[in-house]
Each structure stands twice: as structure tokens, then as C-alpha cells.
Amino acid sequence: MLKEIPDPPARHTAFGSFRKRIVVWFLALVTLTLVVLILTTRTVLLSGVTDGANEDVTQETEEFTTFAAEGRDPETSEPFETPERLLQVYLARQIPGPDEALVGVVDGQLMQMANSPRPLQAGEPLVAAALENRAPSGVFDHPDLGPVHWATVSVEGTDTALLVARFTDSGRAGVSANLRAISIISLGALLLAAGLAWVVAGRLLDPVRQVRTAAAGLDSRRHGQRVPVPEHGDADTIDLARTFNTLLERIDTADDAYQGILSRLEVQLRSWLDRIRQRAADTGDATLRAEAEEGARVLATVTALTSLTVGSRPSDAAVTVAAESVGRDVEKQLIAAGLPVALVSNVHDATPVTLNLDAVTLAMGEAARFCAGLSTPVELGVEIKDDALSLWARERGVGCDSGRLNQLLDWRPDASHPEGQQAGLALLRAVADAHGGSAWAQSTRGLGTVIGLDLPVLTTGEVDS
């Protein structure tokens, strides 16, 4: 099982992606609006084509009905003697539109003008469908020309009829042309909206960008820094900078309180430890000597925490040393503390690293002490990987329960394990946070346990003498 303590939050921002999200959502809304507008326009225009066709057909049928009832033969000034003559005169007086067809039907034969814009042929599907249909009107779906609206008006008492057909292909083509023009205009509007959204989003997020830029220039490892508040900036930027500074002040206040408490606790522990050591020396009591040793460990932990600060800011205890010397120094001090450790992997170059070596050594000592409680000897290792200095302590062959290991690495105290090692392993997390790195542990029962630190402490500075 692997338990990795979360890294401190990275110092990256989502300013760019947030701005892009604003633009994307704005464009999505505009695109949806334009699509709905285009579809609605298409529906309205096509409905207009259909209504216009119906009105033309109705008008022609009404005109023919009126002419059949009231019309006179221009040659005799009398009512028409034959239906054929009626159709001949009526058709001669009509000027059909470019999408209309007016056809007289006499004994199955078609009668129409020679210059008809839409001539019909006997037997074609449109004519057959209209004449064979019992309904006086309808719509024929032409495979090439689309819907064709038609109507028939019979001359009373005869087999003669007038066939009116209104084609809609030209109207539909006009609608398609209009929609293409609207789509091109909409695309231009969409591009304009994208540019406008980008500018507006930038203006809206400008206070965040300014404060972010100013905050990025701060050294997070220094106490008491503030974001400069612009004297003549806009109100949003000034308010945001002041709010950010208020948060920094609260962090510094908490840091000061933390340091004060630890300093007082260190003084009290040191005084208590001196009394215990004196009593142990006077009485020779082995129990008091064990308490003194445990007290010394706790005091060392408190001293290390005092040299660290809240908010990933190491103290003046940081030194710059060669990476190859870190492993040897840690091994030497842990052996001096009586821990059964051996350095089995070390860095073999003089890459400079800046770290609080005392705190790191104490943290690795707690890791080695935990591993030694499982099995010995304990192996130490120091490596450079992913531009970070990695230190680890490992025992082979025993391992432990992952749940217990997780509890030991947690900040919160565990009532079931109140002994010093409970605070000891948590020290790894404090050291990792203070150096902007991470603490981690891995344990498999029957195989072993590894506990370590990954610290991004590589530097280009000079090694301290």
C-alpha cells in the first residue's frame, strides 16, 4: 500500500484557462442563439413559401369558378356553349407566374398555352395524381422539384376541369440562398463575438491577473511580504490586493503565534529535561534515564519545528551544501544517535542543495527509527530524481499495516499511539512542506517499508564553507 502526503499547492494559476472558459461559454451561448435564429428563420421562410403557394392556388380556383359562372364568350357575348370554349377563353386571358401551371383537361387531353412557363404533359405523375385523386386539392411530392400544390375545378355537369399547379422549388431555392447568406453573416458575427469576448474576459479578469503577477514576484520563503496596492488602479484591483494582503497578514500572525508557542514549549521542555537528567544522575534510576532519552527526542523535534515556519518558509537554519555530502552527514548523525543504519545509495556529484540539514536529519532519524522498530539493519539512500533531492529509509522483510502507517503520517494525533514516534513521523511532513517538497511512505507486509522525502532543493548557489 502507498501513502503519499499531498504536495503543497503548486504556484500555477488558471488565469488563461479561466479566460478561455469564459470565451468558450460565451461563444457556445452565441452559437446556440444563432442556430436557433437560423432554424426559426428557415421555418418561417418555408412556411411563407407554403402559404404563398396555397394562396395562389386558391386565388386561381376562385377566379375560374367566378369566370365559369359569369363569363361571356367574347365573340357572341353569350354564355359559353361548350366547356372547351370556356377553358380556351379563360386560359387565353391568364398570365401564369413563373412557378404556376394552368391546364385544361378535356376528355383526358390537356389544353394549355404554348408559352406556359411550367408546361405539363399528359400522363406525368403530377397530372395523374391530381386527376385520379378524389380530393379537389392536395400536395404532390415531386422527386426533383419538391412539393407541388395543386387543385382541380370541374365544370359542372361535364368531364372538363381546370388543373392549377403551383411549384415551390424556386421559393425553396430562394430560402436556401437567404439562409446561406444569413449563415455567413452569423459566422462573421461569431468571430466578432469571439474577439469581443476575449477582450471583455481579459478586462474582467485584469484585477486577478495584476494581483497574481504581483504575488508571483513575492518570495514565499520570506516573512512579512505584501502585494503592492496600486495607488491609481481600479477599485476591483485595489480591493482584491487588500484582501490578499489581509490573508497574508493572517498567515504571518498564525506563523508568529506558532513560533511563539514552540519557543515557549522548547524552553519548558529543556527545563524539564534538565531536571529529569539531574534526578537520573543523582538516583541512577534506569526509568528516569529512559525518560530523559525520550525527552531529548521530543526536545529535538520541537527544536527542529522551531527552525521551520508555517507557509513553506524555511528559516535562517538553511545551508547550501554539496548533494554528495548530505547522505554521509545524515548517516553519521544517525549512527551517533544509536540507530542501526547504513548508507547504501548516495549521490556522486557536487550539485549544490539548499536545505535545513538539521531538520532533515532529524526527520530521517524518525523514519529510520520507525523502520528499525520493524527490522534491522535500516538502509539509507539519497538520490537526485526529477530535479529534486530524494532521501529514504528502508527496512526489508517485515512491513507493517498500511492503516497504522497512514495514521502515523497524518497530522492529527492518534489516541491509540500516543508515544513519541507518533509526532516523529509527522515531522517528515513539516520538513517537506517547509522545503516545498513531499513526504511519502510505502509498506507491504512481508516485504518491507520505505519512508522518504522528496525535496526540490537543487540550487545554483555556492556551497557554504
Characterization of this structure:
By secondary structure, the chain is of the alpha+beta class. It folds into three domains: 157 residues, Beta-Lactamase (2-Layer Sandwich); 84 residues; 150 residues, Histidine kinase-like ATPase, C-terminal domain (Heat Shock Protein 90, 2-Layer Sandwich), CATH 3.30.565. The protein has ten helices and 13 strands. Strands 1-12-13-11-10-8 form a six-stranded mixed beta sheet. Strands 3-2-6-5-4 form a five-stranded antiparallel beta sheet, with helices on both faces. It is rod-shaped. The N terminus is likely disordered.
**What is the β-strand count?**
13
Count of all domains: 3
Briefly note the CATH topology name of the largest domain. Answer: Beta-Lactamase
Biggest sheet layout: 6 strands, mixed
Average predicted confidence as pLDDT: 83
Rg value: 46 Å
Beta-strand residue fraction: 15-25%
Question: How many H/I helices?
Answer: 10
Q: What form results from the Cα inertia axes?
A: rod-shaped
Which consecutive residue ranges, at least 5 long each, have pLDDT under 50? 1-13, 310-314
Q: Please write the CATH class name of the largest domain.
A: Alpha Beta
Structural class call reads alpha+beta
- What is the second-level CATH architecture of the largest domain? 2-Layer Sandwich
Helix content class = 40-55%
The order of strands across the largest sheet is: 1-12-13-11-10-8
Compressed to H and E, one letter per element, the order equals: EHHEEHEEEHHHEHEEHEEHHEE
